[in-house]
Design brief:
This protein is an alpha+beta fold. The protein folds into two domains: 3-309, Bira Bifunctional Protein, Domain 2 (BirA Bifunctional Protein, domain 2); 326-404, Anticodon-binding domain (Rossmann fold, 3-Layer(aba) Sandwich), CATH 3.40.50. It has eleven helices and 21 strands. The protein has helices at residues 21-28, 44-63, 77-83, 112-119, 168-188, 240-246, 272-275, 298-309, 332-345, 359-369, 379-382, and strands at residues 32-36, 39-42, 67-68, 74-75, 95-98, 104-107, 131-140, 155-165, 195-201, 208-215, 221-225, 232-234, 254-268, 278-280, 286-288, 290-297, 326-330, 350-352, 373-377, 386-391, 397-401. Strands 3, 7, 8, 9, 10, 11, 12, 13 and 16 form a nine-stranded mixed sheet that branches. A hairpin with a 2-residue loop joins β1 (32-36) and β2 (39-42). α1 (21-28) crosses α8 (298-309), α2 (44-63) runs antiparallel to α5 and α2 (44-63) packs across α8. The two termini are 18 Å apart. It binds adenosine-5'-triphosphate and magnesium ion (MG). Residues 110, 141, 143, 152-153, 156, 158, 260-263, 295, 297, 299-300 line the site of adenosine-5'-triphosphate.
């Protein structure tokens, strides 16, 4: 990508109504554009970050044998009425609209009802199970407060995985596999060290569910952890019974703020029962399917990474999610020529600042945009057949032979 040819521009100031740091930095650095509170557009760089996050999630889920689908965002009220969740009293974040030919539909805030309903067409026998499907999909929620940048959108991107089983034991088995996959995913995304599996309320069907909480000063949630952080729980389950279950004492727990980047839930028959998702077992008996659901807030993860690593100069992307690895600057005629060559030799890896502006401005933009390595090539570095590489996260600079740069 050449900065001289893209329409995006870095901004000295963020929109006045963008108070969250992740939103302000991402807008200023040209990754996203703000439409209104809680609604953002993803520009070329932002989209590449999203695609990198999706790729990592997709790779780990595919290893578990999950199949990717894409369901509709427009929702027929019918299945939701069967579970009572089309009601605004039950679910207070619906966006609903009239259909011109009559009737109402909703914009999907999640997909338990439609996926359960859809799979009635495909699951009939125990031979069809287990089965697990996921999607990356835009969700719509009329959130009361949308002041946290892309951490809380009214329109946002979620990965939602649903699993279907013949028995509770098989659901437990798969749930355990997802726990391992999630640990791997958050590690690969660069936030594994600060992301904890957290005990949360399981509703009436299960004692506990688990949230994945990334400790973060601007996080909207409060979680509680013990000394070695081997036990983390949220405020829904901070009670005597849970403390006893988990073998921790209230006075040993410390509170901190965190952002929920994902959660996993044993739904059991919560949706399959009212929607009638059944299968026949080996004895030809009709049984209700057991289900689990497993979410990750893809756009929220991007915001969490932005918040987590940013410094006073701008964004700092871990290499695995960065839109490009190198931010390239050529100085002087010779430097520009060598930079052109470097750009051609590293397809898909380089953001080339080939604009006709002062190097100082380019350096400031490189810091704001936060790619892992700034590469500066000039007559001086070429005298050593090298480029000057500055690592964004440490600010450390060194000369590296051009032939050694992969
Ligand atoms: P929260 O408590 O933060 O509102 P939730 O419990 O409503 O989250 P889920 O319905 O379980 O969230 O959705 C799965 C994941 O989607 C969450 O773990 C979170 O990462 C993400 N998510 C939920 N709501 C939003 C939102 N408004 N904007 C961005 N991401 C969201
Ligand atoms: Mg919510």
């Amino acid at each position: 990508m050449r900065l001289s040819q893209t329409f995006i521009k870095t901004l000295r100031e963020a929109p006045k109504d963008e108070t969250a740091r992740n939103g302000a930095l991402l807008v200023r650095a040209g990754y996203i554009h703000k439409e209104m509170a809680g609604v953002y557009d993803y520009l070329p760089l932002g989209l590449r970050v999203i695609e990198n996050i999706k790729r990592i999630i997709r790779e780990e889920l595919n290893k578990l044998g999950c199949e990717e689908i894409s369901m509709s965002a427009l929702q027929n009220p019918e299945p939701w009425e069967k579970t009572g969740r089309f009601s605004d009293q039950e679910v207070d974040i619906w966006f609903k609209t009239e259909v011109s030919s009559g009737g109402e539909l909703g914009l999907a805030p999640t997909h338990e009802e439609p996926i359960t309903n859809m799979l009635k067409a495909y699951i009939t026998s125990y031979k069809d199970l287990p089965l697990q499907v996921y999607q990356f999909q835009t969700k719509f929620r009329n959130e009361l407060r949308a002041k946290s940048g892309i951490l809380r959108g009214r329109e946002f991107l979620m990965k939602d995985l649903y699993s279907f089983h013949t028995s509770e034991e098989d659901l437990d088995r798969f749930y355990g596999e997802v726990e391992k996959a999630y640990a791997k995913i958050f590690d690969r995304l660069g936030i594994g060290g600060d992301t904890y599996e957290t005990f949360a309320s399981g509703g009436i069907f299960s004692k506990y569910s688990h949230e994945y909480q990334t400790f973060l000063p601007v996080g909207e949630d409060t979680v509680y952890y013990n000394g070695d952080k081997s036990v983390v729980l949220n405020d829904e389950v901070l009670n005597d019974e849970t403390l006893e279950d988990l073998g921790v004492k209230r006075e040993d727990l410390v509170a901190t703020t965190a952002a929920e980047v994902g959660n996993i839930f044993k739904l059991k028959t919560k949706y399959s029962e009212p929607l009638g998702l059944k299968f026949t077992d080996q004895n030809n008996e009709l049984k209700t399917v057991y289900m689990g659901c497993y979410g990750i807030g893809v756009s929220r993860v991007m915001g969490v990474i932005a918040e987590k690593f940013a410094d006073d100069k701008g964004l700092v992307w871990p290499e695995a999610v960065a839109p490009y690895k190198y931010h390239l600057v050529g100085i002087g005629e010779e430097g520009m020529e060598a930079a052109e060559k470097f750009y051609a030799e590293h397809p898909g890896e380089v953001l080339f600042d080939d604009r006709d502006i002062r190097p100082g401005e380019k350096f400031a933009d490189a810091e704001l945009m936060g790619l892992p390595y700034r590469v500066v090539i000039s007559a001086k570095t070429l005298a050593e057949e090298s480029a000057e590489i500055t690592e964004r996260i440490t600010g450390k600079t060194k000369l590296v032979k051009l032939s050694d740069l992969k």
